[in-house]
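It would be a great kindness if you could assist me with a short task in structural biology. The full record is reproduced below for your convenience:
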Amino acid sequence: MGFAEILIAILTISALIIIHEFGHYICAVSTGMKVDRFSVLGIGPVIVRLFTYKGTEFVISAIPFGAYVHIVGMEPEDDEPKARAPGAPPDPEEAHYFRNRPLWARMLTILGGPLANYVTASLILFSVLAVSGTKTVLAMDVDSVQSESAKAAGIATGDRLLRVADTDVTGADAHGRITAATGAHKGETVAMTVRRAEKEVVLQVPISEQGLIGIGLAEGEVEFGPASLGHSAKMAVYGPLELTKQQLQGLYALITGKIDAKLSGPVGIVREIARSAQRGWRDLLFFAFKISTLLGLFNLLPLPALDGGRLVFLGYELIARRPANRKVEETVHGVGMLALLALILYVTIRNDIFG
């Protein structure tokens, strides 16, 4: 891949992150909160001040990774609230602080980022389908071999799946055909026919009790046909939800040890976007649809430092009718952020660079 494709990939992922932060920003300001800074590119110290709009300073930061918004009264380094009698309203100067806004406003602000990614994913999918037509996947290729049983069976990256047992798994909805065929032979070892280097190869492949082979699949042969605006709109709603369902099922299988998947960090993601850009604008936009959906889903996971982790504490406040201990919450998020950064660094070095 060339420099142009890599640049397109970096710009694509950067745009999706900016959209995520814009979701937080627009929900915050629309519910009466003050956002004093929006770094549209990068984290860390500010190096370029672009402009100020309605009290928000738009900047570029030193470390060119991601983006962020600073909502006053949300982070521990913000000024501590002024002392007041129990039940008394907050000081008027602090009324716009995140911690002093209604619970529904705070929850909406946290949800704003993931929602922005899901809306963007729907708009991307609608636009591609409306312009280029509906996509029909006619065959699936092996993108990665994740389980030891699949490796032992001889499955290789690049194999095109043709038959599972006696079932043809090519044609319209090839992915669904594969899922149905493996689901019909749970816990069995079956003959699987693949095309490899223009030759058909028959392998004896064990299928788990959950109907999994232990491989990652990518679209192989596809065709495009005309799509009405109604169909495009329907798929724009259904597509992100179906992708979310598939990813949650895969995540569950990974956590429970049913598959041994290989995670990718930022370098791996940029590499895959660049490859899609090489295949043309249609593939690039389809991949952007997937990344936007997954960015929204990832941030909704109930893990410290993520939006989902903050929603857990707000959920506690909703049930307990009192906020969680602020120091405890920020300690949890701080440790979670360090753990997340360590995981990203580990995955990037182990899988993306030396994997």
The chain has two domains: 104-133+226-355, 134-225. Residues 104-133+226-355 form one domain. The mean pLDDT is 87.
